[in-house]
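Researcher: Excuse me, tokens okay?
***
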Amino acid sequence: MVKKSLLLPLAFLLLFLGGCAEFSGASAGKIIPPSAQVSPLGGKWTVLEELDSNGSEGGAGQPWLGSDVQFAPGVVSFGGHVWDNPAYKIKRVKAEDYLLTKYIPSVGSSGLKSQKVDVITVYASGNYLGEFMKLDDTSMIFFVENKALLLKIVAEEADSTLVAGDTSAQELNQDSREGISGVLLGLRIPAATGYTYQTLWIAADHQQLRPILASEQIFFPRTSGFWELSVQNLPADGMTDNLLTARNVTAKAPDLKRENGEREGGAGTEEQPNAEAERVINYIGNDYIAMEKRTAGINHLQVLPVDKLLSPTEIKVSDLLGDKGFNAYLNAREQAAAALREKGITSVSQDESGENFGLIRKNGRWSLVGRIHYQSGGNLEYKDFDLKIIPPANLIFYDALVLSWYNIKDRVPDATDAFTSPNRDIALVKTKTKLTIYPIGTDKLGETHLAELELPEGATVIMAEWATGSYVDSWEKSFLAYGAQALADGSVRMR
């Protein structure tokens, strides 16, 4: 029950850093861009309370209590870190609706139930730092690292040392970006019935490996915080049937089930009740996932928005790549069809919509592919073809190998995949049964690896989201708060 004696009986969660996407809650009101060079937040604030998920006091062990949050022109500071050139987005929302999107209880006696408030999202270098819900000129709620913090203003201006041109602030910012990297690695693992999915957190500080963490779902960053992608198997006659759902980790998990042949999925369940299919994830990014949908003997590639995984509407090539990309898709498809006709295959399916496409890993990079279906010997077969187009940044944020694929294969001949950090300090090299973590030397893998993990045979990497500098600590704390556990014996197991 919310305590009436509390000034602000709110609660919990939103997270600390992310990748590339917009807030997608039902209460997301009008976006109001702040005036150029003007911060919508200012001054020096202090943390009065840390609120738990019921809007009550957080109890003992509150590291944020008494700490400062400061804003000056071109600078924001909190949690022991300083960021320069922050960016802001303002949403004006109904307080009650906004809190419901985070599964936060009703506000009760605070008077916010029908009030409209400003929610200011703060970014630095394109990364999500947190959200501030302004209650009045002297108080606000700060959502960060799965916490809801009550702030009160203590000074109209930040400390005099915290200015955009301050050398120490710039040095702190620069130092925090170097020598430390972390990656959230998503895995698809074959199981007795379909696949399971896991997330690994691998981080190194100046090439010294931190404890490796793991969770049993896909945990991934977005601009609005961290999200969870869940795969739920549903009863079906004679086939594997599953559903994909994605949610901000601060929101209540939906209860998807089948009763009398129908699914109950709550808001957003737009798919037809009897659309049984096995959905196999090939890639997940900040805004989109690419998968294979297997139903009624047809294996179809799909790209879907993370926010609308249950919608029957698919993303088309033209939606992501424009008209030129769509023409390239049609040309590549016609070449694949011509190659089939040369083999005497004349029954080739048509696809004028450009929906049958996706992503695969090839030589350490993500590649766009299309799929063409045809009849052969009375069976429906398919063939994939390369689009030879670099995936756009709104689909894949970072996909660079700082070492050449040939260099990696020369060192690890049985390598099937590889990932390198933006800081050029660590590399992950995958074989059929192992994932090896190397330091990166001068244009080559280090002589001695940092760790080696045993993988189940057939495990596939479907996500690699990198953090650097001070963001590494924030991502790690958020992953631990989500429930991640340290790997005890250097192996990744099937559930």
Summary: Residues 317-342 form the longest helix (26 residues). The chain has five helices and 31 strands.
